[in-house]
Design a protein that fits this description.
Blueprint: E1 20-23, E2 32-35, E3 45-50, E4 56-59, E5 77-82, E6 85-90, E7 96-99, E8 105-109, E9 113-118, E10 121-126, H1 140-147, E11 150-158, E12 166-173, E13 181-183, E14 191-196, E15 200-205, E16 209-214, H2 217-221, E17 236-243, E18 248-257, E19 270-271, H3 280-289, H4 291-304, H5 312-327, E20 329-334, E21 337-342, H6 353-366, H7 368-381, E22 383-389, E23 397-403, E24 408-409, E25 412-413, H8 434-452, H9 455-476, E26 490-491, H10 508-511, H11 517-536, H12 540-559, H13 605-618, E27 639-641, H14 642-655, H15 660-663, H16 665-676, E28 688-690, E29 693-696
Parallel strand pairs: 4-7
Antiparallel strand pairs: 1-2, 3-4, 3-12, 5-6, 8-9, 9-10, 10-11, 11-18, 12-17, 13-14, 14-15, 15-18, 16-17, 19-20, 20-21, 22-23, 22-26, 24-25, 27-28, 28-29
Helix pairs in contact: 6-7, 6-8, 7-8, 8-9, 8-11, 9-11, 11-12
Length: 713
């Protein structure tokens, strides 16, 4: 059955580096304001407009019971029992909540602006997508705008044909058991706001907006004495704006986040934004004072991330994935130095390296310094030395330098030299990714140097690059005459187990590291990049080693091609699986100054041709296409990762010149349906889709591989 697509999917609305999200879009109490969460906050969010007759508040359906409102219950007669004496009293007639019908609601999602329209109501939620300046060298004004832990909301009411004023409401129900809801009017003269303790708030200027707390929205709407707006009990906070008759009114709100003090263990850090903002009140006032400037910046980014050469499906997936990326970002202050972390969605692992290498292209586009920052963290705290062994042998041979899978989980930095993920003695999920993370450091470093021209950084890390080359060669084979450019030895950190790849939840077609075609092509790309950079530095003898390894690796891959053009998933044995990510590593020569090697006259033109034939041969139903046209990364697994599909689609079009309409355009509609399916939409952008169902890697940042599509114009 085809997925049921809908506009009611959650999307992130997140500041940069605050690890916070105003998640909204799924029906019911399934969104809200969250900090450092592995899923949406599951708050009631109230956004609505009083009906023309004044009897209802017509609501967007983001609260529990939305769409199940009983219009007949809008006037109530309560029977109150008090010690056996019954007294009838009639409550004040107040407008009752009534959800807009689905057919009345439309939505447009862009990179920065998420616009909802229903009746006379327009709601624009504005999130930043902007370069993040390096805090070490940036002026205060620029960095404050970029790290401001707030997003903007504009509520527009078209009341031109009505002679009466109408209420517009915006609020939420707090769910933190450790701090009460409060009115920020008490601490911010000239502003109206509601918030949960010190960490979340919605604030507006008070000249046209009022605030109140209560047990429910009904309680608040029934208030007839203004002093009762200051009631301190209840978990519902509501802002009320009055739209004047005969005109269009616009109201501006700041949705704010704040966590002060030390926020991590293992390595003590605080949020870098606390350098510039003392509390959430300062965040709110700054956001509202700079609302127009931030709105104009967002409009520019909306255009940048929706170019004409992208299809509507592509624009939507790009915007959705960029939002989820920012929802996982964390900019920290470590003893006065900036420290960049991208958390791994629902898992919250910190700077997972096999995500870093894919998110690399987005960061290089906007914030290259964050790539350098993460690479330095890996070298200084999360590198290690090991030996290697042949499978089935206890003999140790020299290995070398490598890097951990991640730096910790859930705001807890792991001990130096170890990740939170990798265990010992395993052959599948949770085993070590030693070889892949070694290759990932090389690829990230060479892309960074080529993209920025940062020769000072390269000078300081030239020794690390040479150590990485030595380590890669040692993992090929300890005997020079037996080397073929492909990993064949296991790290001793596996303790008799086997290394895995980033595709840890797939079968061995992509999960096994040793002799894997996917990893082999990435190794080839790393050798090519090392040769390029070491040759530029005049290290001819060392560069020659990298060049020789690249040629051996390419020859091994080429020799494995079958008569039908398909490559096996593993370059050992007679493995039946076929995989799309065999082509994945071809992305890197484009970004390491080596793109010419894949051209028709290039040194590795034959490798490109073999991979082109392989892709064409496997992109057929029953092999690497699902019935709906979506891409199936492995012929023997139903678990397909959208981030990797996006990257491989770009390689297919940009590197292999495989026509988009032939193998990629028809798939986009299927991938959009996967994400918009009502069963998946709660999780915002998700990566791992098992036959179109989001089963893992949800609420995830990795989809920004879609930014590569911007380079196809």
């Amino acid at each position: 059955m085809a997925p049921k697509s809908s506009i009611f999917y959650n999307a992130h609305h997140s500041p940069i580096g605050a690890f916070a999200s105003f998640t909204l879009g799924a029906k019911g109490a399934r969104g809200g304001l969250g900090i450092e969460l592995p899923q949406p906050a599951n708050h009631n969010v109230y956004i609505g407009l009083q009906s023309v007759d004044g009897e209802f508040i017509d609501m967007l359906p983001f609260y529990a019971g939305a769409g199940q409102d009983d219009p007949a219950a809008r006037f109530q007669v309560e029977q109150v029992a008090d010690e056996g004496i019954k007294e009838a009293r009639t409550t004040v007639a107040t407008p009752k909540l009534r959800a807009f019908h689905d057919s009345e609601i439309s939505r447009e999602l862009l990179a920065c602006t998420d616009e909802w329209r229903a009746g006379d109501l327009v709601v624009r939620i504005i999130s930043p997508v902007t370069p993040l300046p390096d805090p070490s060298i940036s002026v205060v004004g620029a960095i404050k705008l970029a790290v401001l832990p707030a997003i903007l909301v504009e509520v527009e009411v078209d009341n031109r044909i009505n002679s009466d004023a109408r209420k517009a409401i915006f609020g939420y129900v707090g769910a933190d058991p450790y701090s009460a809801m409060r009115r920020l009017d008490d601490t911010m003269p000239g502003y109206a706001g509601v918030g949960q303790g010190t960490q979340t708030a919605i604030v507006a200027q008070s000249n046209d907006v009022g605030s109140a707390l209560g047990f429910s929205v009904d309680d608040i709407l029934a208030i007839d004495n203004p002093d009762n707006c200051k009631f301190g009990l209840g978990s519902t906070g509501l802002l009320t704006a009055i739209a004047a008759p005969g005109q269009i009114s616009k109201f501006r709100f700041a949705v704010c986040f704040y966590r002060g003090g030390c926020v991590t263990a293992g390595l003590a850090t605080s949020y870098l934004y606390t350098r510039y903002f003392q509390d959430i009140e300062e965040v709110a006032s700054y956001a509202l004072d700079h609302f127009e400037q931030l709105r104009v910046m967002a409009a520019g980014s909306d255009m940048r991330f929706a170019p004409a050469h992208l299809s509507q499906d592509q624009r939507w997936m790009l915007a959705h994935s960029v939002r989820s990326y920012y929802g996982s970002t964390q900019l920290l202050d470590s003893d006065g130095d900036p420290l960049w972390v991208v958390n791994e969605g629902e898992y919250r692992m910190m700077n997972t390296f096999d995500l870093t290498v894919d998110q690399l292209f987005f960061e290089m586009m906007l914030n290259p310094w964050t790539v350098r920052n993460v690479l330095d963290q890996f070298v200084e705290r999360y590198s290690y030395e090991d030996d290697v062994t042949e499978p089935g042998s206890d003999a140790h041979h020299p290995g070398g330098m490598s890097f951990t899978h991640d730096m910790g989980i859930g705001n807890v930095f792991s001990r130096p030299g170890y990740s939170s993920y990798e265990k010992f003695g395993l052959r599948g999920c949770f085993s070590h990714m030693t070889h892949e993370q070694l290759v990932n450091w090389v690829l990230c470093a060479t892309v960074y140097v080529e993209g920025t021209g940062d020769t000072n950084w390269c000078d300081r890390h030239l020794g690390v690059l040479q150590e990485c080359l030595k380590s890669m060669v040692n993992r090929d084979d300890y005997r020079a005459e037996a080397r073929n450019g492909v990993m064949s030895l296991e790290s001793t950190r596996t303790s008799g187990g086997a290394e895995i790849t980033t595709y840890d939840s797939l079968d061995e077609s992509l999960g096994q590291a040793r002799s894997n075609t996917y990893l082999a092509v990435k190794c080839w790309a790393a050798y090519v990049a090392l040769h390029h950079i070491l040759h530029k530095y005049g290290l001819g003898e060392v560069a020659a080693v990298a060049h020789r390894q690249a040629k051996l690796c390419a020859a091994t891959i080429i020799a494995a091609a079958r008569d039908d053009g398909q490559l096996p998933a593993l370059l050992e044995g007679n493995h039946p699986s076929r995989i799309i990510p065999a082509i994945e590593g071809l992305i890197f020569p484009l970004h390491t100054g080596c793109s010419g090697i894949l051209g028709t006259e290039g040194e590795f033109a034959q490798l490109a041709e073999v991979l082109r034939k392989h892709l064409r041969a496997v992109l057929i139903p029953g092999v690497c296409l699902f019935d709906d046209g979506g891409w199936k990364l492995s012929s023997t697994a139903k678990n397909s990762w959208l981030s990797k599909i996006y990257l491989c689609q770009h390689v297919a079009r940009k590197v292999l010149n495989v026509n988009g309409d032939e193998v990629t355009k028809s798939a986009d509609g299927a991938h959009v349906q996967w994400l918009q399916d009502e069963a998946n939409g709660y999780w915002a952008w998700s990566d791992q889709m098992v036959a179109g169902v989001a089963m893992a890697s949800r609420y995830y940042p990795r989809g920004v591989t879609s930014c590569l599509w911007l380079n196809e114009g």
